[in-house]
Amino acid sequence: MSERIGEPAIETSGLVKVFGENRAVDGVDLRVPAGTVYGVLGPNGAGKTTTVKMLATLLRPDGGEARVFGHDIVREADAVRSRVSLTGQYASVDEDLTGAENLILLARLLGHRKPAARARAEQLLEAFGLTAAADRQAKNYSGGMRRRLDIAASILNVPDLLFLDEPTTGLDPRSRNQVWDIVRAVVAQGTTVLLTTQYLEEADQLAGRIAVIDTGKVIAEGTPGQLKSSVGSGSVHIRLRDAHRREDARHLLAQVFRTHVQLDPEPVALTARLLPDGSEDGPAEMASRALAELTRAGITVDDFSLGQPSLDEVFLALTEKTATNEAKQEALA
Ligand SMILES: Nc1ncnc2c1ncn2[C@@H]1O[C@H](COP(=O)(O)OP(=O)(O)O)[C@@H](O)[C@H]1O
Ligand SMILES: [Mg+2]
User: Fold this and answer.
1) How does residue 98 score in pLDDT terms, banded at 50, 70 and 90?
2) pLDDT per residue over 14-44, tens digit each?
3) Residue 19: which residues within 8 A CB-CB, separation 6 or more?
4) Whose C-alpha in 169, 181, 206, 327 is 20 to 30 A from the C-alpha of 256?
5) Does residue 19 line the site of ligand 1, with CB under 6 A?
6) Atom number, ligand 1, closest to the C-alpha of residue 51
7) Nearest residue by C-alpha to atom 12 in ligand 1
8) Is the CB of 328 under 6 A from ligand 1?
């Protein structure tokens, strides 16, 4: 690895990709420190895959610039390609071959001699818990096994930068945990990982920094902690004795906290996000003020708890902010 200390693995500036009228990626600035897991978090259609494809040199940008380990992704695409690997919906795994055959074949294509290819395949099958399934055709693998095989295939040669595009979408929690362990092992070897995900918990678990992306734009960036604190200090979850009083409680809490109060699936439960209200009060003081108000209004609280904001709440708050800003801009236009 020849990069200078502190040089980012990825740096983009105003990256754009347009499909017809659709600005799928609309001016994305990213800076991904080398040796870390960087999360790109966003809903379906946000522009995650398009961004990854441009950075992996599979798609040519329509605007802006990007460098991977200092190499321009358009002018020095070969140099970029030699440093990166990609896992996702483009996997090169052949359904009719067994797990072992797939890895050996791909290792041979990468230039390994037969014994070395075999050895590397065995090593990865072992590391990814696929030894028992090594001689089964890939088409008979479960979703979790298949995803692990995809990742194994993408790290036959340990890449300096690995793109993992939604590696756990659709997986059950156990398989998801296995993939998370693999990601941690990969980054421990010194590989930088750019991980896209729709799962807020996943970004929180794995990534040192996160860019939240929506409709082709980065709407927030920072550590998971910074993102949480930019949104508010958490939420108060309240369970009422009487479901009939929930609307009253909602109005009251909305007044006290000057925030949106969410009705939870359970008919007695509701959640209020705590936003900084300009006072010195921390979350505990704000929550006790709310409880006092509810009591004064004759609404009985059976249970309450204070929670750190989840990244789900962070995302909701951030996209609400964008929507509000857009509404403001439209109103002013
Ligand atoms: N090859 C393509 N041709 C036309 N539109 C595309 C193409 N690829 C993606 N898009 C559109 O670009 C937007 C971003 O897509 P994508 O990057 O796949 O989002 P994500 O990976 O975050 O779900 C979507 O509106 C999608 O429909
Ligand atoms: Mg995608």
Assistant:
1) very high
2) 999 999 999 999 999 999 999 999 999 998 9
3) none
4) 327
5) yes
6) 17
7) 24
8) no
CA distance linking residue 226 with residue 14, whole number of Å? 23
Looking at residue 178, its pLDDT comes to 87
| Most confidently predicted of 83-92, 196-205, 237-246, 309-318 | 237-246
| Cα–ligand 2 centroid distance for 45 (angstroms) | 7
Q: What is the pLDDT of residue 236?
A: 87
CATH code for the structural domain at 8-225: 3.40.50.300
CA–CA separation, 85 and 9 (whole Å): 13
Long-range contacts of 229-233, Cβ-Cβ distance < 8 Å, separation of 24 or more: 230/314, 231/273, 231/275, 231/309, 231/313, 231/314, 231/317, 231/318, 232/259, 232/273, 232/274, 232/275, 232/276, 232/309, 232/313, 232/317, 233/274, 233/276, 233/282, 233/283, 233/286, 233/309
- Name the nearest CA neighbour of 117 among 125, 127, 109, 107: 107
What is the location of CATH 3.40.50.300 in the chain?
8-225
The yes or no reply on domain 233-308 and CATH 3.30.70.100 is yes
Question: Quick one: which atom of ligand 1 is closest to the CA of 44?
Answer: 23
Atom of ligand 1 nearest to the CA of 43: 22
- Is the CB of residue 215 below 6 angstroms from any atom belonging to ligand 1? no
Q: Does pLDDT of 2 surpass 50?
A: no
CA–CA gap between residue 151 and residue 255 (Å, rounded): 50
Report, in angstroms and rounded to the nearest whole number, the Rg of the chain calculated over CA atoms: 24
Q: How many CB atoms are closer than 10 A to CB 122?
A: 15
The chain-wide mean pLDDT, for the chain, equals 88
> In the numeric block, which tokens belong to residue 105?
């074949």
CA distances from 221 to 40, 196, 322 (A): 9, 14, 14
Q: How far apart are the C-alpha atoms of 100 and 229, rounded to whole Å?
A: 46
Which residues of the chain form CATH 3.30.70.100? Answer: 233-308
Q: Check if 22 has its Cβ closer than 6 Å to any atom of ligand 1.
A: yes
Q: Which two tokens stand for residue 224?
A: 């998971």
**Confidence category of residue 157, pLDDT binned at 50, 70, 90:** confident
